[in-house]
Amino acid sequence: EFDVTVARLKRRLADAYTELQGIVDYSRNAVQDPTKVPAFKGVFRTLEKYFEKYETTYEDLVDQYHAAGLSTEFPVKKDLEQLANAKRYYKQSNMNFEIISKKEADDAAAAAAQRFPAPIVNPGNITVTSDTRSSNLPRISLPKFDGQYTAWPKFRDMFSSLVDKDDKLSNMEKFHYLSSSLSGNAAAVISHLALEEANYAIAWQSLLDTFDKKRLLANSYLNHVLQFKQHVGKPNSKDLLRYLSSVADSISALKLLNITDLSEFILFFIAFRNLDSHTK
Fold it and tell me: Can the keyword Transferase be found in this entry's annotation (predicted)?
């Protein structure tokens, strides 16, 4: 049974590694050749999935060998080297995506400036009110969003208030502000849409469909509490306050989701969390 399980896990590990290699190759080609960008964006959406698959499978293999008393057989040097490569592929793919996204944002801003000769307000300097009496009010910067679920509600509420519901802004301007505020996985969600006025509503709805999900938000908040890493070394009041503040924020955000049968959801989450990756 041990041999069968290990063989299956090693195939799974090899498959995930091959996918990560392919994604980083796509990213390198896309940085050099703009015509390769759409293909890279297509596979980039799977990066998190395959990297998580690689990590969890690697950990499962370590556990299997340890339980069998064969810890010296895995990981060996080549396994550690492959793990380091997988992490490097993951980081480089994300870095190349950021490079491409920045270039596209710069190109989009230049195109928007040509299409709309009137000065476009810097996304970091938008004010909440348009009344002339607001001229002395401090300017409010738009939030940034990289795809982390815990950051979504704040971004959604601020962007909706400052931009989406502002009738004085055209959809083209709103789309420009939106694309300038996104990075990482969030930017990937709308990367297939051209920067056109008609696409703004589609882009905003795509973000809502992807991130505005109560259960996934709840999972993120609970993970934030349960995976909190204690400061290494002698505990102090500052670290304790940081922990209490983090827990309180997550609990408050969790309650605001108004999930039906919250206690049952939490119990299920804890039980599911303890399952191994294969059973999940």
Answer: no
- Report yes or no: 19 and 48 within 8 Å, Cβ to Cβ: no
- DSSP assignment string, 179-217: HHHB-HHHHHHHTTS-S-GGGHHHHHHHHHHHH--HHHH
Cβ partners under 8 Å of residue 274, min gap 6: none
Determine contact, residues 64/2, Cβ cutoff 8 Å. Answer: yes
d(CA 51, CA 53): 5
Query: How confident is the model over 1-34, as pLDDT tens digits?
Result: 899 999 999 999 999 999 999 999 999 999 999 8
Per-residue burial over 158-182, b = 16 or more CB atoms within 10 Å of its CB, e = otherwise: bbeebbbeeeebebbbbbbbbbbbb
First-residue to last-residue Cα distance in the chain:
20
The answer, yes or no, to whether residue 175 has pLDDT greater than 80, is yes
The HSE-up count of residue 163 (CA atoms within 13 Å, CB side) is: 29
Dist. CA 272–CA 254, nearest whole Å: 18
Report CA Rg, the chain.
23
Retrieve residue 32's tokens. 């050099």
Indicate the pTM of the whole model.
0.46
Cβ partners under 8 Å of residue 32, min gap 6? none
165, 128 Cβ separation under 8 angstroms = no
CA distance 55 to 87: 9
- Give the side-chain half-sphere CA count within 13 A for 147: 13
Q: How far is Cα 39 from Cα 116, in angstroms, rounded to an integer?
A: 30
Number of helices (H), then strands (E), belonging to the chain: the values are: 11, 0
Dihedral angle of Cα 168, 160, 185, 91, to the nearest 10 degrees: 90
